[in-house]
Amino acid sequence: MKKILLTLLTTVLSTTLFAQVRLPNTLSKTEKVYGLSKFWQEVNYNFVYLDKVDRKHWESEYIRLIDAVQETENDYEYYRLLQKFCAILKDGHTGIYLPESIDSLIDSNSFGNYRLRLENIDGKAIVTGINTNKKEEVPIGSEILSVNGIPVPKYAEEFVRPYISSSTDYILEDKIFSRLLQSPLGTSFELTLKRPDNSIYDLHLTRQKSEDDQMHPPVAKQELLELKWIDSETAYLALNSFGYPEIDSLFLEKLPELKKAKKMVIDLRRNGGGNTDIGTFILQYLTNDDQLQSSVSQSRLHIPAYKAWGMWVKPADTISVKGEDRNWEKQALLSYQDQYMHEFANDPTPTEPLQSERLVIPTVLLIGNHTASAAEDFLIAADNQEHMTLIGEPTYGSTGQPMIFELPGGGAARVCTKKDTYPDGREFVGVGIQPDIYVTKTVADFMKDRDPELEKAISYLKAIPFAKSDY
Q: Left if phi > 0, otherwise alpha if psi is -120 to 50, otherwise beta: which for 282?
């Protein structure tokens, strides 16, 4: 009974504080319906994974939301409904973006005197960063057990998960925990935490801007490229982004030093992507191959007349009899089903460096949940390299070409228009690129500041006798 009263009291308190923020309320009912319909229309026409969507559910939700969006009390509530609608698509390259007037009022970790960072470790909401003057009160490694009297799994399921669009379940889980307390200014939370010493602690937080940016542990500056030596034979090379062309020049500068290595670890765990060509430029120095095969790309091809004809085509009509050409029937039926695809040319990329410049040695590629997009393309091109071994966790599992368009009130949306697979048709969007050796970090690893993936890479390479002729 006390928990029920506490939840009711917290809800009332949160609502009162929430109202004080005066969230923008600028959109008319007509604009709200237009924005909803704009997103629905672009998804139906351009979303490359429409064939994986439960169309009946998608259409029924659209119909339901026509009334629901008109009843929202402010622009934030309206955009939250759009985010929930978008989450049905389960795609990491499709999303709804809040207008700046709203986004500036939303945060996940600023609570006035408290600033904390949450991450998913072992399926738990773990505090991995706290402002320095609160590190004794809320030690790093503390676990949030409940929010407003509701156990974290149940709270996340009801208030966080439905608003996140993700291609993979494990990335969805990561986002749920990092956004567990994401809310507008003025929103209050009653938290129950368990410290690393197993003591239970209650904490009241109210979303306020925080001026305290001294975090424990300090956030290390991330260089675009990092090179260090693990031992006299093994080099560690972190490629942290393919979004900046200068990383190619940095790599060439380090190549003479790298060529002293007999074994190598390449860390892609913090590489969220960028431009595929930037990564391919580096990869060509790490293989003996004369060409590299990248992912195969497709996009929907819509010719209205074929869709109209397809209404009258039956699946049996597409089956060839005695070599008869049934391509017209196939295109018509697939067009009617919104599944007719255009496949882009996928010519292999020739490698340019001289053979003497190549560095082909036993190599571990460290990968993780944040290895995404162009970094995943890098891994696909490296898929057949016998001297390379993938260690870590599955990659982000999402890539493509988003089409971006404006929504009423200054917001925006994007819809993924391009599907990518391995050259042989294997899918990695929705499942991630899998490591050869799976290693993940536990709460115990975090508390001891251990890097189990790197430790595994080092032990793996030590067990490999070096013989350049093997490659």
A: alpha
Q: Token pair for residue 229?
A: 């030596």
| Global confidence as pTM | 0.89
Residue 69 host element (H or E): helix 55-70
**Residues near 246 by beta carbon (within 8 Å), at least 6 away in sequence:** 224
* CA atoms of 128 and 269, how far apart (whole Å): 18
The side-by-side arrangement of strands in the sheet containing 388-392 is 225-229, 234-239, 263-267, 363-367, 388-392, 437-438
Q: How does strand 388-392 pair with strand 437-438?
A: parallel
| Closest to 340 measured CA to CA, from 294, 304, 312 | 304
Question: Which secondary-structure segment (H or E) carries 215?
Answer: strand 215-216
Q: State which CATH number among 3.90.226.10, 3.40.50.2000, 3.30.450.40, 3.20.20.140 fits the domain covering 225-296+347-397+432-464.
A: 3.90.226.10
Residue pLDDT, tens place only, 191-242: 999 999 999 999 999 999 988 888 999 888 899 999 999 999 999 999 999 9
The listed CATH number (2.30.42.10, 2.40.50.140, 3.40.50.720, 2.40.30.10) that belongs to domain 106-216: 2.30.42.10
CA distance 435 to 393: 6
